[in-house]
Amino acid sequence: MSDAALTTELSDEGLARDDYALQRVPQSARYGWVTVAIQRFGMLSALSQFLLGATLGMGMTFWDAVLAITLGAVILEVVAIAIGIAGMREGLSTTVLARWAGFGRYGAGIVGMVIAICLLGWFGVQSAVLAQGLASLLGGPPVWMWSIMAGLAVTAIVVHGFAGMAWTAWITVPAFLALAGWAITVELSKQSLGALVASAPPGPALSLAEGATIVAGGFIVGAVISPDMCRWNRSAADVVKQTVLGITLGEYVVALVGVLLAHALRTGDVIAIVTTTSGVVGTIVLITATLKINDWNLYAASLGMTNTLHTAFGKRTNRAVVTVALGVIGTGLAAAGILDHLIDFFVLLGVAIPPVAGIMVAEYYVVRRWRAALDVSRASGTLPGTAPGWAPAALVIWLASALIGKYVAWGIPALNALVVAFAAYAIAGRLGLTGAPRDENARVA
């Protein structure tokens, strides 16, 4: 890899560790689209995608699963590209951009808190899953000790910011694909590919809407936080290329293999096949598959919390310090086994995240109430001198849309919430209901 920006970032330790958490990423610090794309693909080339594919395979024919994946992937790509281009253009993380994209300063702080809690929870859960797998494959220390080692290892990577995560991606993604691919090839070679494609699903039937819901819902949070990743892109074309390539490959390659494995093994427990074909290979597959998605869980959580601390207390906290604190908390909860009891809570919290994208996209591209301030300050590479304070309309729409996503069973819940939020905010903007209140000129500390 010859990306000069990556070397520059690693050599500037202080800058790399803060990662422009509360400011714009300058063009000089950005990366070629391939470096960003492998991160996006790395988030999707995980064991969870095999499980997603296996779930589809248990209830759908191969070609119906292809259709469900196509529909779900298109939804994800549209959302990720729309909000990702805004993040690239402004060079801002999701939660900082949200200040001028519908939510206002304090609303963006609440958004940051929700994202941080949700993703920190999943960071802990993933650390615990990795620990259980390592204990099963290698034995040795108890699971809680493996949890601590797994959590702290990811924390050490994320402390170094995007640059350290990029190096990790270049190592883990090819290793995961090669070793998991070998294990899968061994299993699938035992049966005719044509017969697997034509075979009936072994489990209860899934409808197309249900299948697309599984696909879109499985990565919708990753799509919403696209600005955290796309702020490192150099152009809108780069955002489109890395998003389409990363999501398409992740969904079609990894998920469709999961579909075939479910048809071949007549079971949804395909992860065991991928990880236990060989002790050494299984261990490496498990580690590489978990690292790449879990570092982004912690990274996005640290950006969200850094913004929340800034909006709540006017305090600029170094992102690396926040990362260490969150990493220790998440690791400790994972080792204690507490997070296993909170998965339903994290799923519920995840319902609140899709409307965030709908509101931000509607404000940035349609209503444009605060767009001028961003446009003027972008030329100098700074943030606008003022930020709206509270934005009640966005908060009301956010809550209402999340409830619709939770309780309306028709269609795709995550998409319902997102579309309702977009439409409601656009209408509110046309009616003049999204303007900032009295504290519009609240200073940006």
UniProtKB/TrEMBL annotation:
It is a multi-pass membrane protein. InterPro entries: CodB, Pur-cyt_permease. Keywords: Membrane, Transmembrane, Transmembrane helix. The chain crosses the membrane at residues 31-53, 65-86, 106-123, 143-162, 167-185, 205-225, 245-265, 271-291, 320-339, 345-367, 379-401, 407-428. It comes from the Bacteria. The keyword Magnesium does not apply. CDD domains: SLC-NCS1sbd_CobB-like. One of its GO terms (molecular function) is cytosine transmembrane transporter activity. One of its GO terms (cellular component) is plasma membrane. It is found in: Membrane. Belongs to the purine-cytosine permease (2.A.39) family. This is Cytosine permease. It comes from Nonomuraea dietziae.
